[in-house]
Amino acid sequence: MNIISYVVSVVKYSPVELDKFSNMFTRQNVDVKGTVENGYEKVKEVFENNFKNGEELSAQVCVYKKGEKVVDLWASSLSPSYSGDTVQTIWSSTKNLTALAMAMMVDKGLLAYSDLVAQHWPEFGQNGKQEITIADVLRHEGGLPFFSKQMDIEDSWPENISKNGVGSIIEEEEPSFPANNTRREYHAITRGFVLQEVFRRVEPTGRSIGQFLKEQVFEPLDVDVFIGMDENRQKEMNIADVEMLADKDVEDAARKAAREDVLKQLNKFRTYVGETEGKRPDHKEAWKNTGAGGMGWWNGVPARRAEIPSAGGLASARGLAAVANMMALGGKVGEKTFLKPNGWKEMHAHTTEGDTFGMKTFYTQGGVNHYQDGCQSMEDVPNLGEGGILQYGQLVPKGMYGWGGYGGSLFLWDPVQEIGFAYIPTYLAWYDKEKQRGTRLLREAVFKCAGQNILN
Questions:
Q1: CA 454 to CA 397: how far, in whole Å?
Q2: Residue 398: how many CB atoms within 10 A of its CB?
Q3: φ and ψ at 150, to 5 degrees?
Q4: Global pTM?
């Protein structure tokens, strides 16, 4: 069982700890802080309604339009110290950052998406992995959705990565592909570790993904985004814990609040037999020695210290939105160029259709999803995914790029309208396949407030 499905089943709180969820799914009045530009007031209204509906603990949303920050909001029902500068785990939204790091290597001519992984990492090319390409890994088609051996979290601390502790595990793996005639199977944790090993071997100074992005992207943009945060910085930063309820606790809270809509979401999740972000029972836990596991482990110093390039990023929404803005503007902000035009184009090129969590995905060779199955207006009736279940990918405005994270985060950009968007919650609604809190905000910002529809 992988660690994400594991936390759903074992997360437990004491009665005192459960008190933070006492008003879940019931009306909450919060003070929404931050700024909205004229014309974007409805985004604030939707954000506030997420709290009034009792669906949030703490959250942030930030939007850029044509290089200008037009929305920067945050609120918390728990902590008066929570602010727009607070960072928190962003789960698979981290994958966009790793894709950017790889794109910058391609842009510099240090590798190509069509390269075999073994071309840059010869030890990888054993046990049937010799034909796997960089693009295969980025598209979740590398045959390594989980590792057969568990990792030590210490091996992913920046000072230990070059010792090849994780790399040696990957080298010995045999690829495994789905039985349904498709190569695509979500590499929830593993994608980033394979790419990390390639990255550090081609990066001229041997930097890791987290170190490189810190120096080449995050610091130049002056944003609070991290893949791996050392212990001293953790003490200095305002970091919010991510929180979740176990299956039975969600049901109890929803029944107490008479929320049939939440119960319906939960039951759909329970009966869905396919792969989801939060239900992958055939995969074992990724790390050794996680103790009780669950959110306590992810919120702990060792996990935050590690570079987990598929799931362990720490960021604020305003930080992610600034990166999304850069991507929406074609890889350049002002006089600072992060990707040259061809590097940006290559990252977003050559989409292939597949299935992820029961929804159609269109991953580019650079490892970001192109939302081609989404809506073109607020009035559009969205397509349905596998089993007739609506998925968040069908609610995202058609034409956007990026990805989202476990429990609700969204990190997306639209190069046509030049929109960068980020939403990050601390409460993980793992049962919500529509990512309703974030997609409501996104659709309001793009379809109504931006003043025009996306027509691709």
A1: 7
A2: 20
A3: -80, 150
A4: 0.94
Buried b (16+ CB within 10 A) or exposed e, 60-89: bbbbbbeeebbbbbbbbbbeeebbbebbbb
Give the alpha-carbon dihedral of 88, 245, 439, 254, to 10 degrees: -150
Please answer whether residues 29 and 49 qualify as being in contact, where contact means their C-beta atoms are separated by less than 8 angstroms.
no
- CA torsion angle for 134, 135, 141, 145 (degrees, to 10)? 50
Cβ atoms < 10 Å from Cβ of 248 = 10
Distances in whole angstroms, Cα of residue 154 to Cα of each of 145, 302, 305, 345, 410: 21, 7, 9, 36, 28
What is the side-by-side strand order in the sheet with 225-226?
88-89, 314-315, 225-226
CA count, 13 A, side-chain hemisphere, 220: 15
Chunked into runs of 10 residues, the chain (456 residues) has average pLDDT values of 41 55 88 96 96 96 97 95 97 98 98 98 97 98 94 97 98 91 89 98 98 98 98 97 94 95 92 69 77 84 97 98 98 97 98 92 98 89 81 94 96 97 97 94 88 42
Residue 236 in tokens: 């200095």
Question: What are 315's strand-pairing partners?
Answer: 88, 225
